[in-house]
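Thought: the user wants the 3D structure for the chain below. I'll pass the sequence to the structure tool as-is, report back what it returns, then summarize two notable features.
Action: structure_tool
Action Input:
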Amino acid sequence: MSTPNLFVLEDWRPEDPVFWEQKGRKIATRNLWISIPNLFLAFAVWTIWSILVVKMPSLGFSYSSNQLFWLAALPALSGATLRIFYSFMVPIFGGRRWTAISTASLLLPCLWIGVTIQNTDTPYMIMLILALLCGFGGGNFASSMANISFFYPQARKGATMGLNAGLGNLGVSGMQLLAPLIIASSVFGPVVGDPLIIQEGARAGQALWLQNAAFLWVPLIIVAAVAAWFGMNDIADARAGFREQAVIFRRKDNWLMCWLYLGMFGSFIGFAAGFPLLSGMQFPSVDPVKYAFLGPLVGALARPLGGVLADRLGGARVTFWTFAIMIAGVFGVLAFLPDNGSPGSFWGFFGSFLVLFVATGIGNGSTFRMVPVIFRNLLERDMPGNPEEARKTANRESAAVLGFISAFAAYGGFFIPKAYGSSIDLTGGVAAALTGFIVFYASCLVVTWWYYARKNAPSPC
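Observation:
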C-alpha cells in the first residue's frame, strides 16, 4: 500500500530560510512533538525491568542476584541489537510509518509481562524472553533520532535532537517514578488480576500489583501510535536503500563516534538499569526505588542543555570536558562505597551518581551534535562542486550514523549491570567494575581530544 500523498513531503528544504519560516518550521515542530511522547513510551517500556527486579525477591521469585542483573541487563542487549536494524528503517519505510509501527510493537511485551508477572512459578526462561522483548523500546531511539534529524536545518540540529532525546529519555525516570506508585494499589481494579504478597521484611503482608507497571502503558501506546500514523510525515528525498546507507561502515568517524557515544549514552542507560538493584545491595537499609528516578530525570533534562552548549561552544569541546567530569564522578562513587567494615555513605554514593547522570545527559547532547557537523564537512570536501547534493548525502549519512552509534552505545545498558554482577561474583564487590569504567572514560577523553578537539584535529567539530 503506497503512502498517501497527504503524508509525504515531496519538497523539503529546511536550509532555505524563506521555506523554513513560511512552511518548514511548523511541519518540523509538529513532527517533533509527536515523536517525543512516542520515544518517551519506548524508554519507559525498555527500562521496566529496572523496577521489577527490585521487588521480585520479596514477592517470592527465587532468583539469584546474578539472575536479577541478567533481567535488568537483557533489554539493553536486545535493544542495542535491534537499533542496528532500526537505524536504517526510516529512509526505507518512512519516518511516519516506522514510528507508528515500532511504537505499536511495544504492546507485545507490556501485555505479556502484565499477565506473566502475576505468577511466581513462571519459569525463569520466560522471564528472560520477556526481558529481551522489552528491547523493542530500546530499538526505537535509533529510528526516532534519525527521523528527526531530517526535519531541521544544520544550525538547529543540536538543540532539536537534544530535545527529542532528552524528553524521550524521561521515559526512564517516568517508569522509575510511576511504577513504584502504581504497583502499590489496585488502580485498574480486578480486571488486571490479583496482587502478590510481600513475603518478608518490615512490609511483609503488603499487596503489590506488579502487573500494573506494564498495563499502565498500554492505552498510552495505542494513542501515541495512532497520533504518529495520522500526524507525522515522510520526507521523499530522505528515502534510501540499505546499500546507499551502508557507506557509513567505511567511514572512520562512524566507528570513533560509536566509541564516544558508548561512553555517553551507554553509561546513561546502563546506570539507569543497574542503579536501583546496585543501591539496594550496597545499602540494604535504603529503599532505592524512592530515589532511582532522579538520576535518569536529571540526565534526560541535561541532554537538551548539552545540545545547546554544543551548538554554541562546539560539540568536541563539551564532550571532552564531560568525560573528565565522568571520571571524577566514578572516583566519587568508589569513595562512598561500603568497604572493610565501613558502612559507606548512601548520600555521597547517590550524589556521585547524580553527577554522572548529569554528565552523561550533557554528553549525549554534545556527541549527537558532533555527527552532523563531521559529516557535513566530510561530504563538502568530497563533493566540492555540488553543495546541494553534498548536503542531501550528508543528511542521509549522518542520520544513518546517528542511528548506528545509538545502537552500538545501547550495549552499555547491558554491560554495566552485568559488570556489577560479574564483579560481585568474582571479587565480592563492585570496585573492579567501577575501576574499569574509569579506564574506559579515559580512553574516550583521549579519542575526543586527538580527533576532534585539539588544534589541527583531523575533524574539528
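Final Answer: Structure generated. The chain has one domain: 5-453. The chain is about 70% helix and 0% strand.
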